[in-house]
Write a structure and sequence with these properties.
Number of helices: 5
Strand order of the largest sheet: 10-11-9-12-13-14
CATH topology of the largest domain: Rossmann fold
CATH class of the largest domain: Alpha Beta
Helix content: 10-25%
Structural class: alpha/beta
Largest sheet: 6 strands, mixed
Distance between the termini: 34 Å
């Protein structure tokens, strides 16, 4: 199933049923009086977070949702039945926005969370409601109120403990394949990853954490270039960012230090809160650097960056250093 993390839908709550105009008519009772019943309320529209749904893909084909209308009132003081509520299932981590006012309606962050996004219309009144001592045969009724109409923008944010950052082909997908059962596509051309991937890393004591891999960022991403900026919202819920850098890039004109600066610049331009999240530097592809010059090679990079955070050296392909990194992540999360 195609991964879709944003969708726009139109929703409508049910209209209220109209009141009934009726008079009691029975044999030998020529003036029975008014007996028109009220209508029923319209159904409401709810969003509910369901762990069986993991994408907004279904909303690409059906964009209009309407709850059931309330039934009209009937004679003999029979009230119309209430319209059935409409419950729309969405993935956990979905935000609902009013597309017209850009107002955040609700954020569904855990299983079973639900919010009302459209209120059903109020019922109309039958003529029995208007009977009084001076008006014994009222002919007045009211129509039901129209249900609330809205255009919703649904935005899904993956729920993960760890988020991966980096330029295209820096080794993010290779790393997530090495430490988890996830199998994202890996190849030697940019933007092999075009949709976010989730991987679950399970430790020996059966504790685990979730990693989110998003498409790589490029220079100018905060202005719309490339794919990664579109998916950066998935990293806003993570507790730790792993900045993966290819220390021996295939493109020799791309300096590792410059790569790190590009990513952090794009993060800051996109959302300052994202650039302030805890971030570890992961120097990848160490298997391509001779052991006798590794220490000096790493130190040159760190000195050029003036980096004060934690640093790990790994090889996503061979697995070297990945176990130590996963153990450190688990300790950090605990």
């Amino acid at each position: 199933m195609k991964f879709v993390d944003e969708a726009t839908i139109k929703i409508g709550a049910g209209n209220g049923g109209s009141g009934c105009l009726s008079f009691r008519r029975e044999i030998y009772i020529p003036f029975g009086g008014p007996d028109g019943g009220d209508g029923g309320d319209g159904g409401d529209v709810y969003l509910i977070a369901d762990n069986q749904v993991n994408t907004l893909f279904n909303f690409c084909y059906r964009r209009d949702y309407t709850a059931e209308h309330g039934k009209n009132g009937r004679s003999k003081l029979c009230k119309g039945s209430r319209g059935q509520d409409l419950v729309i299932k969405v993935p956990i981590g979905t935000e609902a926005w009013d597309n017209d006012t850009d107002e955040l309606i609700g954020d569904l962050t855990k299983y079973g969370d639900n919010i009302m996004v459209a209120k059903g219309g109020w019922h109309g009144l039958g003529n029995a409601r208007y009977k009084s001592s001076i008006n014994r045969a009222p002919r007045k009724t009211t129509n039901g109120v129209q249900g609330e109409q809205r255009t919703l923008r649904l935005e899904m944010k993956l729920l993960a403990d760890i988020g991966l950052l980096g330029l295209p082909n820096s080794g993010k997908s290779t790393f997530i394949r090495q430490v988890s059962a996830a199998r994202p596509k890996v190849s030697d051309y940019p933007f092999t990853t075009i949709y976010p991937n989730l991987g679950i890393v399970t430790m020996q004591d059966l504790s685990h954490f979730v990693i989110a891999d998003v498409p790589g960022l490029i220079k100018g991403a905060s202005d719309g270039a490339g794919l990664g900026i579109r998916f950066l919202r998935h990293l806003t819920r993570t507790r730790l960012l792993l900045h993966i850098v290819d220390i021996v890039p295939a493109n020799i004109t791309q300096d590792p230090v410059e790569s790190i600066k590009i990513i952090n610049h794009e993060l800051k331009n996109h959302k300052k809160s994202l650039s302030r999240q805890d971030q570890w530097l992961i120097l990848n592809k160490i298997d391509l650097v001779p052991e006798d010059i590794r220490e000096e090679f790493y130190q040159d990079i760190l000195n050029a960056l003036d980096w004060h955070g934690r640093v790990f050296c790994i090889s996503g392909k061979s697995g070297e250093g990945c176990d130590l990194l996963c153990i450190s992540i688990m300790d950090y999360l605990k």
